[in-house]
Write a structure and sequence with these properties.
The chain is an all-alpha fold. The protein has two domains: about 80 residues, Rna Polymerase Sigma Factor, Chain: A, CATH 1.10.1740; about 70 residues, Arc Repressor Mutant, subunit A. Helix content is about 70%, strand content about 0%. The longest helix has 23 residues. The radius of gyration is 19 Å and the shape is elongated. The model has no long low-confidence stretch (mean pLDDT about 85). GO terms for molecular function: DNA binding; sigma factor activity.
C-alpha cells in the first residue's frame, strides 16, 4: 500500500488544482480529490500496467466531477450563506486582483467541455493525447475545443468596457 501511495502522492497537488479550477470551492475540491484517491485505491487492480498514471487519475477526477454535476442538476441549486455575505461586501481589492478575478470569471463562463480542455492542457500541462484520454474524446475534439476556448477567452478578456451612461436633463 505504501508503494501505491508513493506513486499517487506526487499527483495530488495537480489533482487539487484541477478540482479547484472546476469547482472554485476549496472544500469541494478537497472532497473531490479525496473521492478520486479513494476510487483509485479501490480500483488499483483495474489500472493498466505501464499506462499513464497521471491521465488515469485525472480521468477518475473528471468523471467524479461530471457525476457530481449531474447529481446537483437533479437535486437543484444550493447556496451557501457565506457566499451571499461575501458577495454583499463592498469590493476593495487592488486592480491586479480584479484582473485575475476577471480572467477566472471568463474561464468559468466557458462551456464545461471547453473549460475542462483548457484546464487540462494549459494549466495541468497534459498533452493533447492525455487530455483526450481523460475526457474520452478524440484528439481532434480536444484541439478544436481548446482553440474555441482560447478564442472565447481572448474576446472576453480584451472586450472594451461597456460605455458609461449618465443622465442628461
Amino acid at each position: 500500500m505504501d508503494e501505491i501511495a508513493g506513486l499517487i502522492e506526487p499527483h495530488v497537488p495537480a489533482l487539487r488544482r484541477y478540482a479547484w479550477a472546476l469547482l472554485r470551492d476549496e472544500a469541494g475540491a478537497d472532497d473531490l480529490v479525496q473521492d478520486c484517491l479513494e476510487r483509485s485505491l479501490s480500483r488499483w487492480h483495474l489500472r493498466r500496467d505501464g499506462g499513464d498514471l497521471r491521465a488515469w487519475l485525472f480521468t477518475i477526477l473528471h468523471n467524479l466531477f461530471i457525476d457530481g454535476m449531474r447529481r446537483r442538476r437533479r437535486e437543484g441549486l444550493r447556496v451557501d450563506i457565506d457566499e451571499i455575505v461575501d458577495l454583499a461586501a463592498p469590493a476593495q481589492e487592488p486592480e491586479s486582483r480584479l484582473v485575475v478575478r476577471d480572467v477566472l470569471d471568463a474561464v468559468e463562463s466557458l462551456p464545461a467541455d471547453q473549460r475542462a480542455v483548457l484546464l487540462l492542457v494549459c494549466v495541468e500541462d497534459l498533452s493533447y493525447e492525455a487530455a483526450a484520454r481523460v475526457l474520452g474524446v478524440p484528439i481532434g475534439t480536444v484541439m478544436s475545443r481548446l482553440s474555441r476556448a482560447r478564442e472565447r477567452l481572448r474576446r472576453l478578456v480584451t472586450a472594451p468596457p461597456p460605455p458609461v451612461l449618465r443622465r442628461v436633463k
